[in-house]
Every structure is written in C-alpha cells, then in structure tokens.
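#onboarding

Welcome to the new folks! Below is a worked example of what a typical request in this channel looks like: someone posts a single protein sequence, and someone else replies with the predicted structure as tokens. Don't worry about understanding the tokens yet, we'll cover that in week two.

Example request:
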Amino acid sequence: MPKPLTTPLKKPIGALAILNLADGLLTYWGLLAGAIEEANPLLSGLSPLAVFAVKLLLSVCLAAFLFTPLVRSKSLAWRYFLLTANIVYGGILLLHIIWVSFYYL
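Example response:
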C-alpha cells in the first residue's frame, strides 16, 4: 500500500496567505480612515487601493505555493522561516487592530 503524501508546510503557508490578506484589509481600512500610515517605504507612496491590490496579489502568490511540491518539504529551515513570518504578521495584525480600535473609540 503506498504511503500517503504528507503536507507539513500546508498550514503555515495557508496561514501566511490569510494573515497577509487580513493585513491588507486592515491596512486599507486604516489608511482610508486616516488611522494609520503605511510604514513600508515601497508602498507608502501608493494609494490605499493600490496598497491593498499589492497585498492581495501577494496573498494569491502565497496561496499558489499550496499547489507546489514545497508544501511536502520536511525542511526545518522552511518551517522556522514560515513560523517566524507568521509570528511577525501576527504582531503586525495586532498593531493594526489596536490602532484601528483606538481610532474608533
């Protein structure tokens, strides 16, 4: 009986795509409301809609990795890299939530 394929990186990659999309939505909302400013120097000169479009495109690219052999990689380096990226994005999302909630309180 063939051994089933495991996908150890599927959840971290999927989580990163979702966190990036949530970051894009909160950034768009915060920029429109004037509650935040874009801190990324590559995106700071763009309109809120363009910033959201870039982040949406990045989320789609990240989600595309779910259909590549990368998700079956058992590399600890990739796991730690994705874990670190998810923690960083989680912190950024927490900041966005705090800033937007302070703006509306």
